[in-house]
Amino acid sequence: MATAVPAERDAVAGAFPAPVREVRHPGALLHRTSVGVDLLAAGVGPALAAASTAAALTAAALAGTPYALVVCAGIAGGFLPDAPVGSLVVADEITVADLGAETADGFLPVTELGFGTVTHRPPGPLLRRAAAATGARTGTVLTVSTVTGTAARAAALRARHPRALAEAMEGFGVAEAAAAHGVPVLEVRAVSNPVGPRDRAAWRIPDALAALTEAFAKLAPVLENPGIPKIPEIPENPENPENPGALEVPENPEPPEIRPGEPGEPAELGKPGEPGEVEPA
């Protein structure tokens, strides 16, 4: 479970039996529950959340105990009227809303510039079970690096993302780290305030944190058996008992055959392709 700040982490922890113990890894301090669920206050914003989540995932993989699921959890702003304060949202799309470029004609997402991705989608069956267990609304949860503070920006975001229910700051970063490790991701948000003009008096953070605890108490049976395939284990290598997961590499592998190309062409590696084509690695 990856949250932004310790208050959110502790709210999620309240849904699981005590005690909780600390597990330290380089770049990630985990709180491990008695039922084996790891909680991480990953930091605010997509970059730090991605880095911290990646550190935790890497540590687990190196220990031979890779995670089967990553859940991004916390409070969020909700787009009225679809996600009022106090409601719960489970993302069916985790979309970064401000990664791209501003142009005279408006905003261009990074995908339209020819780079990367802007959306991650949780597994459908898991999403439906999570929503059914918690009574949550399902829709797009936006990830932003700058929290919306005006009605104009809220309207612009909703115009670009008509299915958006909430905005937060970590989901896409957590999802990017999970995707790099081949691990499914889920995002669960309790709405603490409306998206729009910044009005601290309207925030209901304690209520949202309480809703988060209640939601994860209901989610616990789903998370114990998420119904998604785990990462396949590396087959053991009996000839290398010191590192049974290592792949066997010949001591003196024969170098690949290298043949010179035609004049003016680069040398080819292995079987040559058609002129002007590059053989895939």
TrEMBL record:
User: By its UniProt entry, which Pfam families does this protein fall under?
Assistant: PNP_UDP_1
Q: Where is the Nucleoside phosphorylase domain?
A: 39-215
Q: Does the keyword Hydrolase apply?
A: yes
Q: Which UniProt keywords apply?
A: Hydrolase, Menaquinone biosynthesis
Give the start-end ranges of region Disordered.
225-281
Q: In which pathway does it act?
A: Quinol/quinone metabolism; menaquinone biosynthesis
Q: What is this protein called?
A: Futalosine hydrolase
